[in-house]
What does this fold into?
Amino acid sequence: MRVIEKNSYEEMSALCAGILGAQVLIKPDCVLGLATGSSPIGAYERLVRQGEEGLLDFSRVRTVNLDEYCGLSGEDPQSYRYFMEEQLFSKINIKKENTHLPDGCAADMEAECAHYERLVSSLGVDLQLLGIGHNGHIGFNEPAGDFPSKVHRVALAESTIKANSRLFARVEDVPTQAVTMGIGTIMKAKKILLIAGPDKEAILHEALEGPITPQVPASVLQLHPDVTVIFSRK
Ligand code: GLP
It folds into this structure.
């Protein structure tokens, strides 16, 4: 595992975009696993800029996102599909049909989970971008009694609902469930890139240096052969 410390959000974002961009240059038809949250926004901005400048071509890139809220359609501004369209997809030359997120409104959620698991496995993720929650969650894999292996529906932890309520008008508006790649799904990625800001210092320390336990889901990354962590001190 490589841990790289940076002095600002801008420096972290620049390096993160550099690594994602390098992946696209090395393998133009690569599969990128993408994340939402505040952490990757700066990196996405840089990828957009590099696309506009003709430095990156996304026309053959495929993407799979980690997770989606249950009950929010892609048109809902709070959905992760909407976030990805706003921050990245609508601003680069990626084909919409090559961008994938779980369907949070699927009538049959069991079938949707199985379908998304098959999709991610069959595509094969070259590089998975991750953020980390204050409780150590990755994707929406909350602290639990075991490491969930596959895409599944999850009840969000109170602390996650509270943390994510900053993006909603009222805490009651935050969905209480989500569909997420499982820990096993995430661990199949060839390479993993985790980015985290200063508010995550304590949990990052616990995840990277503490015992490997499903109570700190990100601790499982200690078992992955190719993980890069970028931590920004400010
Ligand atoms: C959400 C997402 C996670 C993300 C986390 C941290 O809960 N489901 O994938 O890593 O938030 O987000 P932020 O980067 O905003 O701290």
Q: What stands out?
A: The helical segments are 9-26, 41-52, 80-87, 109-123, 158-164, 183-187, 201-209. The chain has a mean pLDDT of 98. Residues 35-39, 66-67, 131-133, 139-140, 160, 164 surround GLP (CB under 6 Å). The chain has seven helices and ten strands.
